[in-house]
Design brief:
By secondary structure, the protein is α+β, with helices and mostly antiparallel strands. It has two domains: about 1-110 and about 240-250, Diaminopimelate Epimerase, Chain A, domain 1, CATH 3.10.310.10; about 115-230, Diaminopimelate Epimerase, Chain A, domain 1 (Roll), CATH 3.10.310.10. It has four helices and 17 strands. It has a 17-stranded mixed β-sheet that branches. A hairpin with a 4-residue loop joins strand 12 and strand 13 (about 190-195). It is globular and about 55 Å long. The termini are close together. The model has no long low-confidence stretch (mean pLDDT about 95).
């Protein structure tokens, strides 16, 4: 039997197990199970702290690897508070490289992603949205078309709709008003999560195209908030992240 050491971290309730040593992926689903395991939306691995950037990897509970924005900023917060990294630098998460800056909160910086309109239609409803790839594929509904209850029924079907993406996409619903209420159904997790940083980033980019606004505050289902500011054509995303506890898991 081996023992896996981990840190539990989260951003707005979007929670992760953070490992500083490689771990067998065969145990990932059991680790993430909220009833029989530790419980998490995914796992982060510190690959190394190279001289020029922090290198991370992220996996969903189903074992698929993907870029994860909330996992990245939660991991950076933990590493910074542990004295492992400086306040400014570059980070690579599963192939997606970005700049970071840590003050009161972790900020990540992104170039705009192209957006194109995509329609979801079934026998009951026709929805208009924007599709963007911000490191992982996201579909953002135009606000005001359906309410949150309807969205929770439709989201698993919208998630699988994209013909060019056999693995599907994350699906985001936006409320009207301020702060902007957001709900996200995530592929790989195959459920709604308390928050999705990549979904928030994609939603800010979509709203910027829809409205020409340049500052947004989002309220996901979990605690805390996320803000996105568009500055000189680039997007800065920031908000609280939390360390929860250190733990060990016996692998049999």
């Amino acid at each position: 039997m081996s023992i896996l050491a981990f840190e539990k971290i989260h951003a707005c309730g979007n929670d992760f197990l953070f490992f500083q040593q490689p771990f067998p992926l065969v145990h990932l689903a059991a680790l993430c199970d909220r009833n029989a395991g530790v419980g998490a939306d995914g796992a982060m691995l510190l690959v190394d702290l190279a001289s020029d950037q922090v290198n991370l990897r992220h996996w969903d509970p189903d074992g698929s690897e993907s870029f994860c924005l909330n996992g990245t900023r939660s991991s950076l917060e933990f590493l910074y508070r542990s004295g492992r990294i400086g306040p400014v630098g570059k980070v690579n998460c599963s192939g997606r490289v970005m700049d970071y800056e840590i003050n009161e909160f972790v900020s990540l910086f992104f170039a705009p992603a192209p957006a194109r309109e995509m329609i979801f239609e079934n026998e009951v409803v026709r929805l208009k949205g924007l599709f963007l790839d911000v490191g992982n594929p996201q579909w953002v509904t135009y606000p005001g078309q359906i309410d949150a209850v309807q969205f929770r029924t439709l989201a698993p079907h919208i998630r699988k709709q994209h013909p060019e993406r056999p693995q599907g996409c994350n699906v985001n619903w936006l409320g009207l008003g301020e702060p902007i209420v957001i709900q996200t159904f995530e592929r790989g997790v195959e459920n709604f999560t308390k928050a999705c940083g990549s979904g928030i980033l994609a939603s800010a980019m979509a709203l910027s195209q829809m409205t020409n606004a340049d500052q947004f505050q989002f309220q996901p289902e979990g605690p805390d908030w996320v803000r996105v500011h568009k500055i000189n054509g680039f997007y800065q995303l920031f908000g609280p992240t939390r360390w929860v506890f250190s733990g060990v898991y016996p692998c049999r």
